Amino acid sequence: MEFRTNAGYHATLIGINAYPESPLRGCVRDVQELKKYLERMPQQVDICMFTGSTAGDSNSSLLAGDPEVWPTYDNVMSRLKHITSSANTGDFVYIHFSGHGTTIHSDPSKRLLGDLALVLLDVTDKSVIRYLRGFDLAHILKRMVEKGLVVTLVLDCCFSGSVVRNDPLVRYLEYDLGADAAYPQLSSFPSAEDYPEAYRSASMRSNWLVNPDGYTILTACGPTEIAKEIVFNDGQRQGALSYYLRRTFSKLGGVEAKQQHIYYHLCARFRETQVERKNKQTPMFYGNKSLGFFGHVNNESFSAPIPIVRRSDGSIRLEAGQAHGVCKGDRFALCPFDDGITDTLTTNNSPVLATISDVVELTSEMQIAQTLSIPIGTGWMATPLTRLSIRALPVRFEDSSTYKTDWNAILQERESLDISIGRVGVPDYTFSFYVAIDDDNYEVQDETCQPIIRIPGSPQDREGSVRHVLALLEHLAKFKLVRNLTNRALEDTTHSFRNSFNVHLKDQVGNTYGPGCLHLGYLHSGCFHPECAIAVEDDDTLELEIESRVKEDDVLHVHIYNLGYNWEIENILHANHDVIPGGTKWMKNLHMMLSFDAKGEARIHEDIIKVFITTTLTSFMSLELPELATRSAGGDKDATRGEDSGAQSEDWAALNFRIRYKK
Question: Where's the Peptidase C14 caspase domain (predicted)?
Fold first, then answer.
């Protein structure tokens, strides 16, 4: 996505305390505090703030202030339509809502999560509520994105039907059919029936928007959690998401930072304080993680730092573990959040070095190797310096006359790679990659000695050429590592988590396919039998269905990635994760498209759809990889990318679906 240097900035802030029933106390303060940060931006920002506070008489049913800035349905819709019509392509739009949410169930008997709605107001002789339905809001956002606007939507409310009633801190109202019926749906918007029923469980999902590259949505909690206000010692209140977001801006000195870094930092803060707040509440993220929150950011780097949490006993926990390929002995560079967002290890202060001392399923323990002048805190970012797990994918360099003994130091720079020198050209399946050298040219081959990449070298800079080859090898090894990730503990047929889910793909004619290997089981990740691949044609659609078999009060978290033809790992959910309540089914359509550079090749093209399922919230964004810049045309052989390997754990699963495109 290209950005204009003279882009406009449009902010709409909505905070409602004065609900006729179940009033709140922290929502107006949320948006007032955020407005202060927007006013400090160097760019001129078009700010419109709608607030709902009671008039001086506490018994009054009218709102305080100018009616033009009341948070009524008409005022808010007029503002959003005005931005859509007047803003220019490339402008930035920030919408923040603090107030009550609700859930509209089309058929409660089906245990769908229902369509979300924001609870706005309407004021005539008294204040009443009026719903801005999720699919109406999504339709407006869709128009903004289609126009080329870059949209950030923050919803500090909740949509959970499991909320304890009469809790004045909870930002949820039970759905009122009578209040909804008083305002017929606008004919210019699509109806709920125009959207697949399976997707109504969260109207903000990427299925609703045409171009997920153009928006980001941040919600205060998952669809089965509750969003509460924080009560301070002076009696003041704020929404937890708005409060921690404001503190994040304070650390940054502004609002411009990459969305994924802000999200990671927020999640770490919420996890750190959930015991103190007595509420398990975790933000949800949808859309393009690489966008800036409200402005331009540098997208040159593809790295995704991992947040850390400092426990009350002073120990440091990394929010990644065996399921992410972390190994005991891995080294990380730690930086404060405001330094780490630069996507580089070069900061004003040297990074703190840490080593992994213990690894469990989704987290790891870290040991600090130096005396610190400042304490490490929750929300710091960890960037991996080593990935020792990829040493299980050894590399053999050809023993060539152009090889120089002083290259040994260069080879040792890539500590994560297991490299040896020897004969190349005869596959023995001991090595995952071979590097053949012809004069100053390099060819990276797979374990069968089939070419993957051909790289022209430079006689004037052989060291630089070797460093480039090693960087590509590390990329390829990381790809295979992710492909091979599996939970070997689930091979135990008595393991309880084996029966917690059912996952399958369905093609356009109704054929159903399970994950893994037909011969070695659904957990096997290294299968390359032709009969185990799902045959598709370019532009086909597959339906992924996941059934959650956990208890009704529990949830599963799902993460979906595509491991593609150009050795890229892409998040195709366009969200950090999604939530599947116990006893429900979750479905998503996957549009299969053959990459442009693969269409003219004879080589068989395979992708892998990898599904991670966890019982505890985590993020797999650190596993993502960009496309490999240079590749070989190859031959007619299948692209078999590795054997099975994986980590032991108990509360996660990683499942592979091999997708083969018909020629």
Answer: 10-287
